[in-house]
Amino acid sequence: MSVLIVGAGFTGSVLSKTLRVTAPELTLTVWEKSRGAGGRQATKRDGEHSCDIGAQYLTHWQSDEFFQPYINVLKSTNVIHELKGNIINAPSKYEGNCVHYVAHKGMNSTSKYFLSGTNVFYGTRVTSLKMLNDQIEVKNSEGRSAKFDAVVFTIPAPQLLEIDMDGKMAPETREDISKVQFTPRFSLMVVFDEAPEYDWVMKYHADDVVRFTVWDNVKRSHGLDPTLLIHCSALYAVKNTDVKTKEEVGQEMLVRLKELFPELPVPKKVIPHFWRYGQVYKPYPGSPGLVTINERPLILAGGDSFMETSNLSMCAKAAEILGDSLKDRFNIPKIPLREVHLK
User: Fold this and answer.
1) Are 51 and 43 contacting, i.e. CB atoms less than 8 angstroms apart?
2) Rounded to an integer, what distance in angstroms lies between the CA atom of residue 167 and that of residue 171?
3) In Å, how far are 65, 68, 335 from 342, measured between CA atoms?
4) What strands lie across the sheet with 290-294, from one edge to the other?
5) Which residue, 31, 216, 256, 332, shows the most beta carbons closer than 10 Å to its own?
6) How far apart are CA 256 and CA 228, in angstroms?
7) SS (H, E, C) 106-122
8) Among residues 230, 216, 215, which one has the least CA distance to residue 270?
9) pLDDT per position as a tens digit, 140-178
């Protein structure tokens, strides 16, 4: 039985590992519209320079027993390590029994780890689905198509509305998906030949244009040129989405950065980025974990858009929920990934 997973973010990546390890009888393929894995954990590479431009660290609360095995395997394989260095003005939600982790090779290496061993096709965006008896013909933006026995979408829910589902998405499902909201974000990667040393690695600011700054080279200890990553506030991003280009916003962020840190030299490289789907603000009504778009052949959608909270633990839980649903359909025993691989 062939299964297509659409999206190589954390949910899609964990799902691919779950099925590859606990359901080897399935033939898996992953299509990802971007040039790399990670989704909102993207790591930008530009020539010799590299920077995490989305999620900056992974937070684990010790009370979250479900996610502990995932943390353990990522630590034991040296994909992540505990963050070292000061975080200034961290949000109050991080006060408590939690640990922050970073990835030396970039945050997208967490998704890459779980994708290992799966056929992944990057730069491949799904445009339409067509039902062919017991199979689904899936067409991509290049006009090419392939047939699968089941399709699982792990992309941000609003993107589902851009895909021709051959009339199989129920009107009430479409309406509920339209209620899912994300907060956008603008980020700015700033590279210097040299820069002053600070007593912090990350800093949150009471400022809308420059809400968060992090020295990526210090955070990851990658030894490359000093690289500062900037995030604006969600409010500032909402006000400027579809009003200004990412380049225009990037210039405003750069001007404000200079006002906050006048000692910084002139950068040698500035790369702006826009996240239309930064973080889930309003999930799918009822947070069911997944929705079934079509029963036969099976089309599912899941991920943190359908969970009560948006974080990597919920992404992994969504992957397990999707995996169990697929196993139900194909009469495969439900063996949790953590019992086989995450010990």
Assistant:
1) yes
2) 9
3) 13, 9, 12
4) 119-122, 27-32, 2-6, 150-153, 298-302, 290-294
5) 216
6) 14
7) CCCHHHHHHHCCCEEEE
8) 230
9) 999 999 999 999 999 999 999 999 999 999 999 999 999
